[in-house]
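Task: sequence design from structure.
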Protein backbone atom coordinates (compact mmCIF):
# COMPACT_ATOMS: atom_id res chain seq x y z
CA UNK A 1 0.00 0.00 0.00
CA UNK A 2 1.21 3.47 -0.85
CA UNK A 3 1.86 5.83 2.02
CA UNK A 4 1.87 9.63 2.25
CA UNK A 5 3.45 11.54 5.12
CA UNK A 6 2.14 15.01 6.01
CA UNK A 7 5.17 16.87 7.36
CA UNK A 8 5.96 20.46 8.26
CA UNK A 9 6.61 22.86 11.09
CA UNK A 10 4.19 22.87 14.02
CA UNK A 11 0.99 24.82 13.45
CA UNK A 12 1.00 24.93 9.62
CA UNK A 13 -2.25 23.01 9.06
CA UNK A 14 -1.13 19.39 8.66
CA UNK A 15 -3.96 18.06 10.82
CA UNK A 16 -6.53 20.12 8.90
CA UNK A 17 -5.30 18.52 5.65
CA UNK A 18 -5.45 15.11 7.35
CA UNK A 19 -9.06 15.69 8.46
CA UNK A 20 -10.12 16.86 4.99
CA UNK A 21 -8.39 14.03 3.13
CA UNK A 22 -9.39 11.15 5.43
CA UNK A 23 -12.61 12.30 7.07
CA UNK A 24 -11.08 11.50 10.46
CA UNK A 25 -11.39 14.21 13.09
CA UNK A 26 -8.07 15.11 14.66
CA UNK A 27 -7.89 17.96 17.13
CA UNK A 28 -6.38 20.93 15.32
CA UNK A 29 -5.52 23.94 17.44
CA UNK A 30 -3.64 27.16 17.03
CA UNK A 31 -0.67 26.42 19.25
CA UNK A 32 2.44 24.44 18.52
CA UNK A 33 2.90 20.86 19.59
CA UNK A 34 -0.70 19.66 19.41
CA UNK A 35 0.23 16.51 17.52
CA UNK A 36 2.94 14.82 19.60
CA UNK A 37 2.27 11.33 18.27
CA UNK A 38 1.25 10.46 14.74
CA UNK A 39 -2.19 9.68 13.35
CA UNK A 40 -2.94 7.28 10.50
CA UNK A 41 -5.91 7.34 8.18
CA UNK A 42 -6.79 6.33 4.65
CA UNK A 43 -7.80 8.08 1.46
CA UNK A 44 -8.54 6.94 -2.07
CA UNK A 45 -6.07 8.14 -4.69
CA UNK A 46 -6.60 7.17 -8.32
CA UNK A 47 -8.82 4.26 -7.25
CA UNK A 48 -6.29 2.92 -4.76
CA UNK A 49 -6.35 3.05 -0.96
CA UNK A 50 -3.45 5.09 0.38
CA UNK A 51 -2.32 5.37 4.00
CA UNK A 52 -2.01 9.00 5.12
CA UNK A 53 0.05 9.79 8.22
CA UNK A 54 -0.17 13.10 10.09
CA UNK A 55 3.39 13.40 11.40
CA UNK A 56 4.18 15.60 14.43
CA UNK A 57 5.47 19.06 13.57
CA UNK A 58 9.19 19.56 13.34
CA UNK A 59 11.46 22.46 12.47
CA UNK A 60 14.29 20.28 11.22
CA UNK A 61 15.46 16.69 10.96
CA UNK A 62 17.82 17.28 13.89
CA UNK A 63 15.36 16.34 16.64
CA UNK A 64 15.31 18.58 19.70
CA UNK A 65 12.21 17.19 21.45
CA UNK A 66 9.99 14.11 21.55
CA UNK A 67 7.67 15.25 18.74
CA UNK A 68 10.62 15.93 16.44
CA UNK A 69 12.13 12.53 17.32
CA UNK A 70 8.90 10.85 16.21
CA UNK A 71 8.86 12.87 12.95
CA UNK A 72 12.46 12.00 12.08
CA UNK A 73 11.94 8.33 12.93
CA UNK A 74 8.85 8.14 10.71
CA UNK A 75 10.62 9.76 7.77
CA UNK A 76 13.47 7.25 8.10
CA UNK A 77 11.20 4.26 8.71
CA UNK A 78 8.87 5.02 5.80
CA UNK A 79 11.58 5.94 3.31
CA UNK A 80 9.46 4.83 0.34
CA UNK A 81 6.69 7.33 1.14
CA UNK A 82 5.63 10.45 -0.70
CA UNK A 83 5.92 13.51 1.54
CA UNK A 84 3.47 16.39 1.40
CA UNK A 85 5.56 19.11 2.98
CA UNK A 86 3.14 21.70 4.39
CA UNK A 87 4.64 25.18 4.66
CA UNK A 88 3.18 28.41 6.00
CA UNK A 89 3.21 30.44 2.79
CA UNK A 90 3.57 33.70 4.74
CA UNK A 91 6.68 32.43 6.58
CA UNK A 92 8.48 30.48 3.86
CA UNK A 93 11.96 30.84 5.31
CA UNK A 94 10.89 28.77 8.35
CA UNK A 95 9.50 25.88 6.33
CA UNK A 96 11.96 25.79 3.46
CA UNK A 97 14.76 24.61 5.73
CA UNK A 98 12.80 21.47 6.61
CA UNK A 99 11.60 21.02 3.02
CA UNK A 100 15.19 21.09 1.76
CA UNK A 101 16.24 18.56 4.40
CA UNK A 102 13.46 16.20 3.27
CA UNK A 103 14.33 16.72 -0.39
CA UNK A 104 17.97 15.98 0.45
CA UNK A 105 16.87 12.55 1.74
CA UNK A 106 15.55 11.88 -1.81
CA UNK A 107 11.88 11.47 -0.87
CA UNK A 108 9.30 12.24 -3.54
CA UNK A 109 7.92 15.57 -2.33
CA UNK A 110 4.98 17.86 -3.00
CA UNK A 111 4.99 21.30 -1.37
CA UNK A 112 1.71 22.69 -0.01
CA UNK A 113 2.03 26.46 0.40
CA UNK A 114 -0.65 26.60 3.06
CA UNK A 115 -2.26 29.71 4.52
CA UNK A 116 -2.05 31.22 1.05
CA UNK A 117 -4.76 33.69 2.04
CA UNK A 118 -2.37 35.15 4.64
CA UNK A 119 0.10 36.09 1.90
CA UNK A 120 -2.55 38.26 0.28
CA UNK A 121 -3.52 39.92 3.55
CA UNK A 122 0.14 40.58 4.39
CA UNK A 123 1.02 41.72 0.84
CA UNK A 124 3.58 38.95 0.43
CA UNK A 125 4.31 37.93 -3.15
CA UNK A 126 5.43 34.36 -3.83
CA UNK A 127 6.30 33.26 -7.36
CA UNK A 128 4.93 29.71 -7.10
CA UNK A 129 6.15 28.63 -10.54
CA UNK A 130 9.68 29.88 -9.86
CA UNK A 131 9.76 28.22 -6.43
CA UNK A 132 8.57 24.93 -7.95
CA UNK A 133 11.21 25.24 -10.65
CA UNK A 134 14.01 25.91 -8.17
CA UNK A 135 12.96 23.09 -5.82
CA UNK A 136 12.18 20.68 -8.64
CA UNK A 137 9.00 19.46 -6.95
CA UNK A 138 5.29 20.24 -7.43
CA UNK A 139 4.28 23.29 -5.40
CA UNK A 140 0.64 24.18 -4.76
CA UNK A 141 -0.89 27.20 -2.96
CA UNK A 142 -3.51 26.02 -0.44
CA UNK A 143 -5.85 27.18 2.30
CA UNK A 144 -6.50 24.03 4.34
CA UNK A 145 -9.34 25.44 6.44
CA UNK A 146 -11.41 26.28 3.33
CA UNK A 147 -10.17 23.46 1.11
CA UNK A 148 -8.78 25.88 -1.48
CA UNK A 149 -6.10 24.17 -3.58
CA UNK A 150 -6.80 20.75 -2.05
CA UNK A 151 -7.90 19.19 -5.35
CA UNK A 152 -4.79 20.51 -7.09
CA UNK A 153 -2.61 19.24 -4.23
CA UNK A 154 -4.07 15.73 -4.44
CA UNK A 155 -3.71 15.78 -8.23
CA UNK A 156 -0.02 16.67 -7.90
CA UNK A 157 0.78 13.67 -5.65
CA UNK A 158 1.28 11.50 -8.72
CA UNK A 159 3.81 14.08 -9.96
CA UNK A 160 5.77 14.06 -6.69
CA UNK A 161 9.41 13.91 -7.52
CA UNK A 162 12.70 13.40 -5.83
CA UNK A 163 15.02 16.33 -6.33
CA UNK A 164 18.61 16.54 -5.20
CA UNK A 165 20.31 19.39 -3.44
CA UNK A 166 22.89 19.43 -6.26
CA UNK A 167 20.11 19.94 -8.82
CA UNK A 168 18.57 22.71 -6.73
CA UNK A 169 21.92 24.48 -6.38
CA UNK A 170 22.38 24.15 -10.14
CA UNK A 171 18.99 25.78 -10.78
CA UNK A 172 19.73 28.66 -8.40
CA UNK A 173 23.23 29.36 -9.79
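Answer:
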Amino acid sequence: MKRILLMGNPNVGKSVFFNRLTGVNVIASNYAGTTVDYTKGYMCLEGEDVELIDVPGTFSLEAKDKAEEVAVKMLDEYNDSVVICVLDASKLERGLYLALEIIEKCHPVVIALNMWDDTMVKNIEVDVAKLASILGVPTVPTVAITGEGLKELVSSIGDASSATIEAIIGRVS
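The two ends are 39 Å apart (CA to CA).
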